[in-house]
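Sequence in, structure out. Go.
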Amino acid sequence: EKIAALHPPTCPSLIREGICHGYCKESVCKKNEDPLSICTTPSSVWLEKITTEPLTGIDVDNICESIGTKENFVRAFFQLKHYHEYEDALFFDPFDFEHFEKRLDENCELLARIVYLKHEIPFLGYSSVKLPKKINDSRLLEYRTMSYSTIYDQVPIQAIFNIVAPMLEQKFHQASYGYRWNADASDHYRIFQDWKEAYPRFRKSVMAALSQNPNGFHVCCDIKGFYDHIRHDILFEELRKYNLDQHVCREIERIVGAYTLSTEKNCGLPQGPAFARLLANLYLNDFDYFVSEMSVAYFRYVDDFVIVFKKKNEAVEGLEKVARRLEKLGLVLSEDEEKAAYIELNSETTHVTKTLDKIHYGVLECTRRMDYLAPSAVKDFSQAVERHSISPVTLEQIVKINDYLPSLLYIATRRSISKYIPTEKVIGIIEFLIKHKWFYPKRLKTIFYRILDMQPDEDHLRKLFRLLEPAHKVYFILSVFGCWRTQNEHQELLKNLTLDSLKEEDTHVLGFAIAIADKLEIKIEVNSEYIEKINSQSKDYFCMLKWLSNLDYLNETDHERDRIRGMIKTSGPALIKNYLFTNIRKFPSTYLDSLFLRRLLQNGCILLIPAACSLLANATDKSELFNELMKFCLSRFEYKSLVVSLINKRIHVRIEGANQLEIENLKCLFGEVEDEDIKVSILNAVDRYAHISRLDFAKNHKLIKSYNGCLFFEALDKSGEYDYIELIPEEIIRGNFKGDLDSFKNILYDFAEKAIIPKVEVSYCIKEKLAEVKYKTGEHLKVLCSSNFIFSQDNPESIRGAFKLSAELFRKSLYFLRHTGRIPYIKIGYIMVDEYNSTAVFRAVGKSLCSSHVIEGATFGNEETDISKMISLLLESLVFKERRVFDAFAKSRPYSGLNAFLVLFIQRMRFKDPSRRYSCSRFCYLVEQLFRKDEPYHMDNWEATIYLRERLKGALSRLSPKMITWYGICAALNDHLSDHLFTVCGNNALYNYPFRNRLFLLGRGSGSLHMLSKYLLELALSREDISDKDEMDTAYLDLLELLLLYALVCIEIASIARVQQSKDVRHNLLSLLEKQNDIRIVAGDTAKDFKSIDIASLFIGLPENSEYEIISRLSLRLLSLKALFALCEVIVGENSIEIKKPKKMSEIVYCRLAYVCLVQIPDCESGIEAMLKDVLLALRNNEDFSRLQLDKMRNIVDTLPYDLMKAKRSVRYLRYYGQADGKMFPPIIRCKRAALCGSMLVKERT
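Output:
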């Protein structure tokens, strides 16, 4: 009852009321004492936050009100930018996004109003892109038709589905895994769930279902040409079942119906736009429910699905039902040899594994660890390249080379191993494929960057470009443009490729060449041939948009303007006219041009409103065009408030640099406007200017900056009541503070009290309709700039100061965001720092009151992840001044501990995946660790130790995201020893360190360990050497030793578990599992119960004739059981499995082995999981973890080598073989029978 009265019960309120006696943790106390942090609750401290965002507050009957908000459209823009730039979609068009972004607020406000008022959304249509897909039996390229649409078309439909998609998702079947809508509130910019999480869930679910039904049957299916054969009538019928607003349904139907690139009428969804993927799932939703009800298990990933049945006759009958159901949907199953539906036993998984591998399109994910390969393995790889450089003679070879090409290029461009790869051979392979029209690799957004890194000969690259398919030329020239724009490289090559592309006939190659030519300031001669070429491409308007995007119509010659008037028709698309109007900044001087522009307005296209308002604001005289523009803007009463706002913003920009005569002319011109609202708005803007132009004001103030309709002045008299004054128009305040001027004043006073901004006084001028915000900075606050503050990577105290400053700004930015919905503008020149205590404040608030910010070419929205990226750019500009200086510094490993953190912060906080950027709490915790007074942080190795400790914790969390696994632990250790350690210690750290060999003292079978196990054990035993040399963080050393010893156990157990079981044993075990009861495993005096599904998982998923087995999905407990099966005889009983002692194994060795595999290893795994859960909990709560108990793990490692050596010797498993494949850690190492009994030879290849 006491707690209920305090709802919601925060920790401070519970303590204040005496319900809690104090804070449970020091970190919780610290967080609640921070005035910028949100108070914690018991739930937030002890429970993990659910990532899903529930659907609330949406009225289905008034859904257009929810869709038609400016914030929703801004979010849609940034979602699409992230989707096209980073995810598996068509090429990213930077010029299209740039054009929309120039007027982001205006465009989003207009489009939102169109939807809100239920007017028809302007839609230009789709442009087809023929992308090479595969080689057919005749060795000819086949193409996939992708669909390009401009961002002006995509933003409205994305904004609609931001609201509609959660409604659809609620009824989607859980068996569908591909492209499910993202409901994670912490990752606003991701449209779909991350495939790196969705695909593993799909694969794991499929294999688990096969394990649960080991004696059943399954069938893998692929829908032929899925997207192209989706019937619109059936899709729209499915959509109407959700009772959405009729206008919303009509708009979706109209935009889908505009797709006409399919070979069948009224069929097909465009491949490329994000919304099509959601509608594809909707189309098969009823099918998902149908198949799930008639089968044991069912799983679908887009157009691929797996169905599990109990019996073969059920599978045959079920497959027929599936075909008939798909036929009703206008779909058929694929009949290709590789994709055809086959009914197989669940224990035979060759085909399903191939299907799952085919779906896994993230090719580069499999090669990230290859820079840690041993030289021998890399040489093997290079020999494979040599073999592939020979002309392929079979279709299979051509397909295989294209599949391997992204991985091949990735490996060849890695600095650590590139010396082993014959790059000229790789380029030769690519050139061979291109010349024969056999080039169709995946990962096109990255593959040409790799080619640019490998091939310095730009003439050769230009020749390759000329041979490419048109779609590949687009990806190539965009990659070169990206290198030039971000790194200032390949400018000459880009210029030559652009000149070549201007001669192309393909609309997309030509269009991008036109856009790039403008960036390079290449003058294009606009002759009749050029105009005719663009006009001939007007069917999809791509070239014309790129041409018009930077064309100022009135600056062209008379002859060129005449040609343009002939190209752009009055009845043409609204977007074409909008592009033309956008760049017109003055009124025409000839009647013919004026008449042309007036005619373009006659159709009343709403999309032209922002451009028309902008042109009106630049008027100097009343003319027929002026009257026509005014008439056009006021022709729709529903848009009047938007028109008034847009004109007012433009007038404000214009009068900033105007003289008194121009101001008077403006008053006379708009004073005669009949519309009272526009007249009053303009006159208010002029009065505002008069306010700042008063003799006394102008005399005592200096204009510093103008932005967002606001003006920022410096007071020349520093002895006055304020040092700076900011004038913020009322419409800016009402657009950002929910229309409440009192809230605005209270928030600013709160900001000043918490030192987010300087001391402030707020007043409001009713006549001018603006707020005066007066800032008192005093003598100690200085503007953050290079002349006032110097930061250097060579000065440790300077770097610490930059970290502390950044952490403080991060916390204050987050507080600013929570109270205004906007992120502050974090950039040098807009921040002030107290030169005595280094406290930072934002110089003013007006600059932050907008939908987006642009800093160094990067655009930021209003999410916490955008703050993280801004902090990254701030750190870089504080310490390095220029991007190229940082890039050079980042390549100069190893670093000192502080510099390692500096590089980590800058790179990690601008990571392309926003979900992987550091949060405010995590960043502040790491910075705080570098300032701890109770530790010797002044010592060189302290920062390095903190770096290693936190990177190791982060790797454990990243590689075991859902649950702790032995494979995730080993992979994290691999990252740590192969990357993190080298970052602060150098590549030869482990070789040069003066370790003492302690392995020979251990004895008891350690000599029979695999070489990799010996290395790990030697490192673990050398902890004393590290501790003797310097003071180190004991908790970190505990964690590192624990992982080293655990990895040793994993390697040794896994090497035995990889030994293949005989077919008879497997068959007997699978037959036992029909009862699905718990199975009792008996080995000597030791017995243990296992679930039948666990036993099945040891064998399901293993191809019959596979040499290697993927064991990463098994727990260590099951691996040890499989190792026991491999070393002993297996007798299958009624409800049990008896493990018999091999003839040549002694009773003592046998009992000891049974105890190790059935008791000791499972207990070890449980203990490790418990300890690491505490470590990961500390990571999540940004706390230190306590020292770990290592005695049990040390005892296991002390006896395990001896026990396993005796057992392996008894059954003649005395040799190792295998290799490091770069994909798995531990590597694929397996035991093999020795040729002679008693041989102790150990042959290694790691």
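Check: The two ends are 64 Å apart (CA to CA). The CA atoms of residues 480 and 1147 lie 69 Å apart.
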